[in-house]
Amino acid sequence: MRRLGSELRKLRENAGYTIEQIAEHLECSPSRVSRIETGKAQPPKQRELRALLELFDATDDHARDALLQLAREAAQPGWYNEFQEVFPPHFGSYIGLESEAAELRHFDNQLVHGLLQTPDYACEVLRTTLPGEAPKTIDRLLQLRLARQKVLDRTAPPFSLWVILDENVLQRRIGDVHVMRKQVRHLLEAIDTPNITVQVLPFSKGAHIGLDGPFSLLGFPDPTDPDVVYVESQAGNAYLEQPHQVSRMNTKFNLLVASALDPRETASFLRSIEKEMQ
């Protein structure tokens, strides 16, 4: 949807039409046209898309067929839709982005990222953050979290994960010592995986630029798909896509990389923590 919307926006702008004119042509609201162009709405129907291509005088048969195919693919439900009865509103958008990404870079000062959580750790997080939720719902959310981790094994296109964890993540006990020890051991195993990079930002580094909270940067296989910054909070999830926003968060992540222990030092640090938990 993001790729389709981006192409339609380019065609509209090149043809000299405003969003309001397109809304009038489709007999819908300008906000729907805007959501289509930003990939945040259901894709236009095939007849709507053909009408737009005619309006934009898009005569290249190959380009027209490619856009029609994109619309058909965008209308297909994602694998995660079988869990949609349990995940929060709009979280499906993030899972869809994560599933299609070529790389994910993440900083966290609260929890281990979901893609690197062990089942026991993930279960403790879900139980704690969703008090009073039915065990069946917790179990379904756990299944979803573990299903997301399959992206780490994807080879076509390849997927890479780079995670920076504040030491606070490792010092806060989630579950009992056994749960935390298994989680630390899992992080050590992840460091040895070619497509995963893990860094720890220890307390000894003092104040750092990530103190204001977690964020993720998602990059995609198609170079025409712009990066997305994802920020989750109690007030709602934010998707930042403007070039200046993405550039600022890229700089922020790079500064965190420079401040954190390198992967070799991180492995030594994690082994020392694991030893303390014996």
TrEMBL record:
<protein>
    <submittedName>
        <fullName>Helix-turn-helix transcriptional regulator</fullName>
    </submittedName>
</protein>
<dbReference type="InterPro" id="IPR001387">
    <property type="entry name" value="Cro/C1-type_HTH"/>
</dbReference>
<feature type="domain" description="HTH cro/C1-type">
    <location>
        <begin position="8"/>
        <end position="62"/>
    </location>
</feature>
<dbReference type="Pfam" id="PF19054">
    <property type="entry name" value="DUF5753"/>
</dbReference>
<dbReference type="InterPro" id="IPR010982">
    <property type="entry name" value="Lambda_DNA-bd_dom_sf"/>
</dbReference>
<dbReference type="Pfam" id="PF13560">
    <property type="entry name" value="HTH_31"/>
</dbReference>
<dbReference type="InterPro" id="IPR043917">
    <property type="entry name" value="DUF5753"/>
</dbReference>
